[in-house]
Write a sequence for this structure.
């Protein structure tokens, strides 16, 4: 009987984690693993104070980082869109967790990030490099991550 309850508990826990949603809170965005977002930012000076989700996709397969970078087409569009993809990824023969950023603000974008490892309750800060406009920017981790919080967005 204990085994049945344990299996039921694990099943429910898996369903709850799989249903984690993207959330927005005053310029802060929480993204679970396996999401691709297209965002429209709201500005106050050079700070992004809020976002509107224009499009959200669930990713079921690992993304190929080399393929993504190779097929990126740079343009001169400055529509202020921000595309964020947070997913498991393949880099040659290695599996990694990656955040891909494509932003079209015409300026360099800086922001802060915190990651939560699978099975952990707390988020921990991680370093993020600035993202240039109209380019594909990749951050990657070897850790088993289930979600990321991005905040303090500024344009330079």
């Amino acid at each position: 009987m204990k085994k049945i309850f344990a299996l039921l508990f694990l099943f429910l826990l898996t369903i709850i984690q799989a249903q984690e949603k993207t959330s927005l809170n005053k310029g802060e965005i929480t993204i679970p693993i396996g999401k691709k977002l297209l965002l429209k930012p709201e500005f106050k000076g050079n700070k992004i104070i809020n976002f509107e989700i224009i499009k959200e996709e669930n990713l079921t397969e690992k993304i190929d980082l080399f393929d993504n970078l190779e097929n990126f087409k740079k343009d001169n569009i400055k529509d202020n869109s921000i595309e964020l993809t947070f997913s498991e990824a393949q880099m040659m023969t290695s599996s990694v967790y990656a955040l891909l950023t494509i932003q079209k603000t015409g300026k360099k974008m800086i922001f802060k990030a915190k990651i939560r490892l699978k099975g952990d309750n707390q988020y921990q800060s991680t370093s993020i490099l600035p993202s240039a406009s109209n380019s594909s920017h990749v951050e990657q981790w070897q850790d088993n991550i289930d979600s990321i919080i991005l905040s303090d967005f500024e344009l330079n």
In short: The chain has one domain: 22-155. The radius of gyration is 17 Å. Confidence is low (pLDDT under 50) at residues 12-18.
